[in-house]
From TrEMBL:
Heterotetramer of two alpha and two beta subunits. The lineage of its organism: Bacteria, Pseudomonadati, Pseudomonadota, Alphaproteobacteria, Rhodobacterales. Binds 1 Mg(2+) ion per subunit. ATP binds at K46, G53, R54, G55, E99, V102, E107. It comes from Pseudaestuariivita atlantica. HAMAP family: Succ_CoA_beta. It catalyses: GTP + succinate + CoA = succinyl-CoA + GDP + phosphate; succinate + ATP + CoA = succinyl-CoA + ADP + phosphate; (S)-malate + ATP + CoA = (S)-malyl-CoA + ADP + phosphate. It holds the Pfam family Ligase_CoA. GO terms for molecular function: ATP binding; magnesium ion binding; malate-CoA ligase activity; succinate-CoA ligase (ADP-forming) activity; succinate-CoA ligase (GDP-forming) activity. PANTHER family: SUCCINATE--COA LIGASE [GDP-FORMING] SUBUNIT BETA, MITOCHONDRIAL (PTHR11815:SF10), SUCCINYL-COA SYNTHETASE BETA CHAIN (PTHR11815). This is Succinate--CoA ligase [ADP-forming] subunit beta.
Length: 399
């Protein structure tokens, strides 16, 4: 789960990371009022969306008076901000964060990520801040300092000092850099984050180290341990298809093709999508119904997949271990009776109670296309979708 910059800054500041004075606003007038409360004579107005690259896309504006703040806000509120991280549809701006501007002397990049190959938290830092990490690694790869943390002891001060020295931090600022690194690490590990990124982390004209931007991502599977983090979720920033599924306890991933996939287990989802591609199709999404799915749950899954307008065929691929093929089949039949499904439906069942499952599908009298292997299912799905498509084109040509 992602959170907003202002929320990440509030969390990190609780762990000793210094951030600029700032306040949240939901309207242009409130933003101007907030700026007066903060004081000073220059402010930064920042669109709060779950994406980076806002600066280049017009989502970060420097303002010198009330009028400029209101104007910046009017240009932002209600708009979709499109950055290189949002995709072409962009993300809606419903909140802005106003901060007192900070004079920048130097910018650093600082990131904490889960490194799967070493199975440790990895700190990635560079004295070439201000650019995205992808640009830094393409243009200044030698500037990147990497350091992994031994999980049994956590980040140690000597290690944080070594990172500060490797970044060329001035002697007088090393202890502030160490405090920042230690704070980020503690926030990362205590709150089960999967990513903390501060870009830029700046040195100011008056020798302070301040996080000007902050991004945090959390492990969804650990959110139950951190209700104070879970409540920061902002559904307005999520793919509505994915949040509807999450609300129903299903996990859904939206894609760009036109074959909807209902599967159990993420590994099977990957294999199903690969096989669809191999057969010449493109998945529209995949929905993981998980283990022990009841007929009701399968029917819910069907409704969700069918609510995606791009879906022109549905492939149900279940390998039942804990699941039961008869329950899945009942769910498919129930869904097809309730939901108007005007696209081909292909079902491949294997595992527990497969014979009962096949019988239920056969007896239903519904136009379900059955397949025995995954390859067969993918080929039938792609074939049925193409067939449907050419029929639709023919019909359009006739009328
Ligand atoms: P991002 O583009 O989404 O990563 O948003 P950032 O929060 O990083 O803001 C973009 C850029 O605006 C930063 O890299 C800074 O160069 C600049 N910026 C943000 N806050 C301040 C500030 O307080 N003072 C100054 N001088 N520049 C700022
Ligand atoms: Mn940034």
């Amino acid at each position: 789960m992602d959170i907003h910059e202002y929320q990440a800054k509030e969390i990190l500041s609780g762990f000793g990371v210094e951030v600029p004075p700032g306040a949240l606003a939901y309207s242009p007038e409130q933003a101007a009022y907030r700026a007066r409360e903060i004081g000073g004579d220059r402010w930064i107005v920042k669109a709060q969306v779950h994406a980076g690259g806002r600066g280049k896309a017009g989502g970060v504006k420097m303002c010198e008076d009330d009028h400029a703040i209101q104007k910046a806000c009017e240009d932002m509120f209600g708009q979709k901000l499109v950055t290189h991280q949002t995709g072409p549809e962009g993300k809606g701006i419903y909140r802005v964060y106003v901060e007192g501007a900070v004079p920048i002397e130097h910018e650093f990049y600082l990131g904490f990520v889960m490194d799967r190959s070493s199975q440790r938290v990895m700190i990635v830092a560079s004295a070439e801040g201000g650019m995205e990490i992808e640009e830094i690694s393409a243009e200044k790869p030698d500037s990147i300092v990497r350091s992994t943390v031994e999980p049994a002891v956590g980040l140690q001060e000597f290690q944080a000092r070594e990172i500060a020295f490797a970044l060329g931090v001035e002697a007088g600022l090393v202890s502030q850099m160490v405090r920042t690194l230690m704070g980020c690490y503690r926030a990362f590990s205590e709150l089960d984050a999967t990513m903390v990124e501060i870009n830029p982390l700046v040195v100011t004209g008056d020798d302070r180290i301040i996080a000007l931007d902050a991004k945090m991502t959390f492990d969804d599977n650990a959110l139950f341990r951190h209700p104070q983090v879970a409540e920061l979720r902002d559904k307005s920033q999520e793919d509505p298809r994915e949040s509807r599924a999450a609300d129903r306890g299903l996990s859904y991933v939206g894609l760009d093709g036109n074959i909807g996939c209902i599967v159990n287990g993420a590994g099977l989802a990957m294999a199903t999508m690969d096989t669809i591609m191999l057969a010449g199709g493109q998945p529209a999404n995949f929905l993981d119904i998980g283990g022990g799915a009841t007929p009701e749950r399968v029917a819910k899954a069907f409704r969700l997949v069918m609510s995606d307008k791009n879906v022109q065929a549905v492939l149900v691929n279940i390998f039942a271990g804990i699941n039961r093929c008869d329950w899945v089949a009942e769910g498919v039949v129930q869904a097809l009776k309730e939901v108007q499904v005007d696209v081909p439906v292909i079902v491949r069942l294997a595992g527990t109670n497969v014979e009962e499952g096949q019988k239920i599908l056969a007896k239903s009298g519904l136009p379900i296309i059955r397949a025995n292997t995954l390859m067969e299912a993918a080929e039938r799905a792609v074939g049925a979708w193409r067939n449907d498509l050419s029929q639709a084109t023919r019909m359009r040509a006739v009328t």
